[in-house]
Amino acid sequence: MEKLVIRNIGQILSGKMEAPIFDGDCLIALDGKIEAWGLEKDLNTEDATCIVDAHGVTLAPGLIDSHVHPVVGDYTPRQQQLHWIDSTLNGGVTTMISAGEVHMPGRPKDVIGLKAMSIAAQRWYENFRPSGVKVHAGAPVIEHGMVEEDFAELANAGVTYLGEVGLGSVKDGKTANQMVSWARKHGIQSTIHTGGPSIPGSGLIDADMVIETDTDVIGHINGGHSALPDDQIICLCETCTRQAFEIVHNGNERAAVLTVNTARELGKLGQVILGTDGPAGSGVQPLGILRMIAMLSAFGNVPAEIAFCFGNGNTARQRNLDVGLIEKGYCADFVLLDQAQHAPGKTMLDSVAQGNLPGVGMTIIDGVIRSERSRNTPPAQRLPERVL
Asked: How far apart are CA 209 and CA 347, in angstroms?
């Protein structure tokens, strides 16, 4: 049995908005799953196979990027870039969710071809996890001609997400709603492109179509890249009671803050989740989720510990994942971070609330250390250390 003990933790962020900070200075994981946390004196730390001395830094559930466009392995032809997933791990992200492998050169758009590519993408990221990162891929973009049996076949093959509705030939709400309903019936979650066109072939998706299509996630509600008018964003926040409000790094920052302010006023902050929407024309954003947490905390008047929930626990709940929360039996996926050197603020959370990035000192996936001092974040004041 593999037993991970992380001791001398400064604080534990839970990923849960209702209780964002847990008491405790120690956490234990068995065979890659969270077993217990609390005060070290109250826990059984014997027979550990790996011990990490946190040296007082903060432990949080690994961050989740709800909106990426992977292609194959750790390479993206969109920017001809290698190792972008590993680079994002250095920004604290341990799980990614595909919104469609739309940048694959020669992407098939016929029904047989799109199903084949979707299943293949699901398989190759299931079989190969770049730097240990969990990439939930194989997200088909719906096209005219698809019938319910196609969604049943995809689900039976292990596909769990649709690519962005609106990036294919289906651009009317009635047809999209029918396909989204078929997908949901067979356990496949859906998201929709929101706002103006992002790439050739995409188009405007306004609030009326978003509501009519009734996807599970309102993809980049702050635009990807161009946002909807304010009144339409407010309408979506007011009207949609269960859908995730996905805010992305590659969208409109002002619209992002508007979304958070509106969601807070409506008591719907639990529906806010974060993504980068990369790789894209804006490039790759290894620190995109951390930047969104800091930005929304600073400009959206959200306590930093709540903003962190946007980047892990909220997404885990909306996406039905066993990561992103400090919960017994959940995957032992963590990011250990601290206030950046010379950054203003009395604490790490206070510094983030002022808009500053923290320094990542270590990431752990399934109880295994995957990276240590980040090569991308500003250097942290303190660093965790493996001592066994």
From this structure: 44
Distances in Å between the Cα of 64 and the Cα atoms of 181, 246, 271, 308, 310 are: 26, 12, 15, 10, 9
Burial class of residue 249 (count of CB atoms within 10 Å of its CB; 0-12, 13-18, 19+) = buried
Please, which pLDDT band fits residue 203 given cuts at 50, 70 and 90?
confident
Beta-carbon contacts of 49 under 8 Å, excluding residues fewer than 6 positions away, are 1, 2, 3, 4, 388
Tokens linked to 230: 């304010």
Query: Could you report the per-residue pLDDT of 39-48, keeping only the tens digit for each?
Result: 999 999 999 9
Q: How many Å apart are CA 363 and CA 294, to the nearest integer? A: 19
Structural domains in the chain plus CATH codes: 3-61+334-386 (2.30.40.10), 63-286 (3.20.20.140)
SS3 content of the chain, % helix, strand, coil (to 5): 30, 25, 45
349, 361 Cβ separation under 8 angstroms? no
pLDDT in tens, 330-344: 999 999 999 999 999
Q: Is pTM beyond 0.85 here?
A: yes
Q: Inter-axis angle of helices 111-127 and 148-156, to 10 degrees?
A: 20
